[in-house]
Structure formats: C-alpha cells, structure tokens
Write the structure tokens for this entry.
Amino acid sequence: MSTHEPTQAFETAPETPVQTARARVGTVVWGLIVLALAALIIISKLGLVVLNGTYVLIGLMIGAGAALVIGGLVSARSRKDRGSSPDSGAVNSDHR
C-alpha cells in the first residue's frame, strides 16, 4: 500500500476587487430609441396624432446624437474622477 499525502485540490487566486457591471451609454440610447419608435407607432396607429415620418426620424437622430455625446462625456468624466484606466472594464487586461 502506498501512502498518499493530502494535497491542496485547488489553487487559490489572489482576490481582486469586484467591479460592478455598468450599462454602456450606447446600449441605453439605442434602447430608448427603440422604445420611442414603438410608442410613436402605437400612438399613430390609434389615430391620436398624425406623424410625419421624416420629422420623427430627424428628431430621434438629434436626440440620440445628443444623448450619445453627453453620455460619453459623463462616462469619461466619471472614469477620470475614479482614476481608472480606459480598459478597466476588461476581464483580462494582461496584454503581452
């Protein structure tokens, strides 16, 4: 019979601080665009308001562009205030 020394089954990795997942600005803006279009289609089909498609698209594009620019600036400012790097959200930032 052989003797078996107990070994550690799993290597323990050093603990890293857990980062909270944040929604991306673009995802939120495109979600709002889809919801706005759906609401406008429902309103126009109910006959409550007559909409001009060109004006609706122009308004949505202006609103989406402004939201993306403002959201990007707010995101950059909060990232700068925290002192983190641009790729801090990456799972593995070990670039070799």
Q: What stands out?
A: The CA atoms of residues 16 and 91 lie 11 Å apart. The mean pLDDT is 78.
